[in-house]
Amino acid sequence: MSDTPSSSTVRPIDVAVGILMKTNGDVLLGQRPDGKPYAGYWEFPGGKVEKGEAIIDALKREMLEELGVEILSAEPWCGVEHVYPHAHVRLHFYISREWRGEPQSLENQAFAWQGSVGVEPLLPATIPLIEWLDRLRDRPNVD
Questions:
Q1: Any domain includes 43
Q2: What's the total number of domains in the chain?
């Protein structure tokens, strides 16, 4: 009998993920730096939620640490669980249309504003979200 817990008994790691969206619908994607799992893959910026930290607070902290931007407002969008070979993650996606500052590469990662996403490879958990975002952008504003 193995002492290794199965993936169904391992609690997923909560991750706050930010989708910075410009008024024209472009979103910011970052490239994972060397030394991290899936180095070179593109993803939405974010990071692990610390113990006792609210997800929105983790999002604000991560955006400041990674990109030097202050999130002024963000709305929860969706949640996705994904099991990678190295980790089981629960991704909490927020869309932010209001932030202060211009994104900077504070962790030596490449980043790119994308309308129709053309960067690759995309991190596996990111792929379905691109399609969902395309539908969100195409939906008429009903305010």
A1: yes
A2: 1
